[in-house]
Amino acid sequence: MTRNLFGTDGIRGLANSFPMTPEIALKVGMAAGRIFTRGDHRHRVVIGKDTRLSGYMIESALVSGFTAVGMDVFLFGPLPTPAVAMLTRSLRADLGVMISASHNPYHDNGIKLFGPDGEKLSDDREEEIEALMVNGLADGLAEPLRIGRARRIDDAQARYIEFVKRTFPKHLRLGGLRIVIDCANGAAYKVAPSALWELGADIFSIGVEPDGTNINKDVGSTAPKAMIEKVKETRADFGIALDGDADRVVMCDEKGRIIDGDQVLALIARSWAKSGELKGGGVVGTVMSNIALERYLGGLKLKLERAAVGDRYVIEKMRVGGFNVGGEQSGHIIFSDFITTGDGLIAALQVLAVLAEEGRPASEAAHIFEPAPQVMENVRIKTGAPLSDPKVASAIKLCEAKLNGGGRLLVRKSGTEPVIRIMGEGEDEKLVREVVREVAALIRDAAA
User: Fold this and answer.
1) Which residue out of 54, 100, 102, 221 is catalytically annotated?
2) Architecture of domain 6-154
3) 227 near 179, Cβ under 8 Å?
4) For the segment 187-236, what is each residue's pLDDT rounded down to a tens digit?
């Protein structure tokens, strides 16, 4: 059986439309609860969410599903995805759930599942859940005495704040630094400013007034202009923009120049290799990582291992290769010494730690290499699979040949949206743009 509901980051879609309906959420709770119920002890699941209006609806349906199969439910309320992963382990839960569509607009929502180790479920586990949702739910209903209980956990935010602060070196402080933090009106709107302030920084917060419909709207990591403008307005030393569930981050220096995930990987690799903290002889990136990052690391005698897009695939490659640093250009950065998934706030603190240790402003220290030009275009599709068309595949190969070995062309279907993503990279930006434009036109024609 193949996965039909789960994509690269859980189940995601338009709220109150298939597959993001209360019925599906109920079945996910019942099926996942059955699979992760082993033994006679009282099993527990923890649930966090971001600030979307539909989160209440999905949460209630999940609670019904889990309690129906005998699981006790601990509800965190708004909390970052990495906090849910961490607390799944800390509270010895059998399962963790995050209700979020990450960087998507408010009208989307999603369900992400974590195993008892705090790691996202494997493809096989997700297939198993889907199979049980189709057939077998009625057999797993708990007897009346074994129905689960649900309760709110009031100190979840405080637990996460203390956890995050412990990842920052004890001999360093953020005292005297002026930091802009953009929380995207999302899950970190309380915890991120608090953690930074408690570490000594002067904080200027934006995106901290969620109303259920403004998550990621003109703020956050996908709209960094708001962060940049606030940094310039307040003459801040550093800017941090999280996405809706705070598992990814984009930063900027005091001049407003963006620091993306590739630059973060380079900065940390250089610093941690020097201090002996880097494991695996390099870092893990993705097929989207800029070729200039690979060249820079090669100059340090470090390697860049490439994984498929999606932090779960980065994490898998990190585990196999013994790496402790990995991430995506988009800002999913994983430090496996601290946590099992991407964490935007922890990533920002590790960058700030390097800047504090070196005593240099971000404009000097955080722009490690000059990236090769990359051109990206998304083609939205309604139906069909244009990449399976032999004519399209052949045309893509011909377009790639036009780069004549001086660049890369990557065409892939998004795992979170109904779009085909096209990325071209090379030294000749004009040629790259022409190739990307041509491929996009081909796909549009095939999908029409």
Assistant:
1) 102
2) 3-Layer(aba) Sandwich (3.40)
3) no
4) 999 999 999 999 999 999 999 999 999 999 999 999 999 999 999 999 99
